[in-house]
C-alpha cells in the first residue's frame, strides 16, 4: 500500500478533531474541506474511513445540521455516488418548512443528472451505481416520479444504451429537426431528441444554429411551442437543447435561477456547485460573468450568508 501523503494525514486529524467537539467546529471544517481539490477530498475520505472505520460524508451529514452539513458531506463524496444520492433524493428536500425557500422538482433533478453532458458510458455507470447502492433500477425510480407519458417515454429513451458515434447524415438530421420544430408536435420533437446521444445532439444543435441563423434553436422552440405548452414537456426539451447548445452557459443560467427572486433553492445551488466544480466550473464562471456583468462569487455572497456562503465560494474556486 502506498504511503499516505503527510498533508492528507494532517487534514484527516484536524477534521476528526473538529468533529469530536460536542458542537462541531464548522468553521474549521469549511476551511479544510472547502479549500481542497476533488481528488484530495477523495483521498481524505478514504483515509478517514481506514483510520476511524467511519464514512466521512455520513459523519458530516449526521453531526452538522442544514445546508452546511449537506454541502460538506456531498463535497467529500465520489462524484458518481453523489449523483446517485441526488437522484434518489430528487424532490425530497429536508428543509421544506422554510417558507421563503424554493424547492426542487424531481424532473429538475433528473434533467440535471441524466441530461447534463451524459455520454452513453456515463449513463451506464450511473445506472450501475444506482443499482449497487439501492438495489433497484434507476429507470423504475425515475418513472415513479413522472406522470406525463411523453416525458416518461423521453427519459426511457435517454436511459437506453446507445452507441457513441457521429450523426450518420448531418444534413438530413438538420432538415428533419427543422421540420419537426415547425410541425407543432412537441412529442415528436422530444422523441427525436431522446434518440440521440449528447454528442450527436450537441453537433445537431450547433450546426442547426449555423444553418438557420435567423432561427436559433431555443428561440424557435419557445416561439413554436411556448404559447400552448407550459409544462414538463417543454421544460425537458428546452433543458436538453440548451445543455447541448452551450453546457457552461446553461449551468451558469441554472445557478442564477437557483438564486433569482425571493428565496434561494439551496438544494439546487449546492448540487450544481458540487457536481460541476473543477474545470467545468471555470468555464461556468466565465459564462456567468459575461451574461450577468458580475462574478458568480459576488452573486453567491449577495444571496447566501455565513459559513454556507464561504463554503460555496471555496468550492467554486477548486480545480481538478
UniProtKB/TrEMBL annotation:
Pfam families: Annexin. GO terms for molecular function: calcium ion binding; calcium-dependent phospholipid binding; phosphatidylserine binding. Keywords: Annexin, Repeat. One of its GO terms (cellular component) is plasma membrane. PANTHER family: ANNEXIN, ANNEXIN B11. Belongs to the annexin family. This is Annexin.
